[in-house]
Design brief:
Elements (H helix, E strand, L loop, with lengths): L1 E4 L2 E8 L4 E8 L4 E3 L9 H6 L4 E3 L9 H8 L2 E5 L13 E3 L4 E2 L3 E5 L8 E5 L4 E4 L4 E2 L6 E2 L9 H15 L6 E4 L9 H10 L2
Parallel strand pairs: 4-5, 5-6, 6-7, 11-14
Antiparallel strand pairs: 1-2, 2-3, 3-4, 8-9, 9-10, 10-11, 12-13
Helix pairs in contact: 3-4
Length: 200
């Protein structure tokens, strides 16, 4: 567990479904999880730091261990309404829409492009922006990149759509870029995203 900013925690855990480590986050003061996996240190960590009350998903695929965390702590799982069909039968979900304000003062921003339910979560209290699958940090020094082309229906059109969406998000004020896949950018996150959307 790494505190990447005061009260903002990051960890990685192996996702059983895809066989690689993915990133999760916890807003300690707000009791809000983002794209949660159970941390390798175990659930007891939350007993020391504050039990989670809400789990926010950046897209429909990122429920991950949300249901185990709900069972342990009673936290509410939140998903964008146009992706909630994927979660049918897994447990109760509270839906949200683009533009909504969620627990912890988090604002839901539309990304779309790679999938209709792709969102970014703006967290002004931590000067942070959390992204789903549209942008990842690669293994070569943490540079930002797209997911592989074979994960996109129309790679060139998808990349253009993602660049346009992230260009709009550059109007927000943030320093940290929280990625679901790869390590977060803890300094200069906005500059890194700007360089990403203008490349290529």
């Amino acid at each position: 567990m790494e505190e990447i900013a005061p009260g903002l925690w990051h960890w990685t855990a192996r996702h059983e479904g895809i066989g690689i480590a993915v990133s999760s986050y916890y807003l300690e003061r707000e009791h809000v999880l983002i794209d949660p996996m159970i941390p390798p240190i175990g659930l007891g960590w939350f007993e020391q730091r504050g039990r989670p009350e809400h789990a926010l998903l950046t897209n429909r695929h990122h429920d991950r261990h949300a249901w185990q965390l709900r069972a342990a702590f009673g936290c509410t799982v939140h998903c964008i309404s146009n992706g909630v069909h994927e979660l049918e039968g897994r447990g109760p979900v509270e839906t949200f829409e683009f533009g909504d304000r969620l627990p912890g003062g988090v604002t839901v921003c539309e990304v779309d492009a790679i999938c209709p339910d792709e969102t970014a979560l703006y967290i002004p209290s931590h000067a942070a922006l959390a992204c789903a699958d549209g942008v990842v940090s690669d293994a070569r020094g943490g540079r930002l990149s797209f997911v592989p082309d074979d994960l996109m229906d129309d790679p060139e059109q998808t990349k253009q759509g993602l660049r346009e969406a992230y260009r709009r998000l550059l109007e927000l004020e943030f320093e940290l870029l929280l990625l679901a896949h790869g390590d977060p950018v803890v300094t200069g996150g906005k500059d890194a995203l700007r360089a990403f959307v203008t490349a290529g």
